[in-house]
Design goal:
Elements (H helix, E strand, L loop, with lengths): L13 E7 L2 H14 L2 E6 L12
Parallel strand pairs: 1-2
Length: about 55
């Protein structure tokens, strides 16, 4: 009988709900986030907020 694995390793997880900010906070946090996560679904927290397609 073959032994069953006792653990799994997730090398580059996905972040399905990450909030990004503007300016210095974005520059401080994003390098760490991108170093750990392979993909992300971004929820922007911008000032001013994007409220129209034209503003995007």
């Amino acid at each position: 009988m073959t032994a069953q694995p006792q653990q799994i390793t997730i090398r580059r997880p996905d972040d399905w709900h990450i909030h990004l900010r503007d300016g210095a906070m974005l520059n401080a946090v994003l390098p760490y986030t991108s170093a750990v996560n392979g993909r992300a679904i971004v929820m922007p927290n911008l000032v001013p907020p994007v409220i129209s397609v034209a503003a995007a």
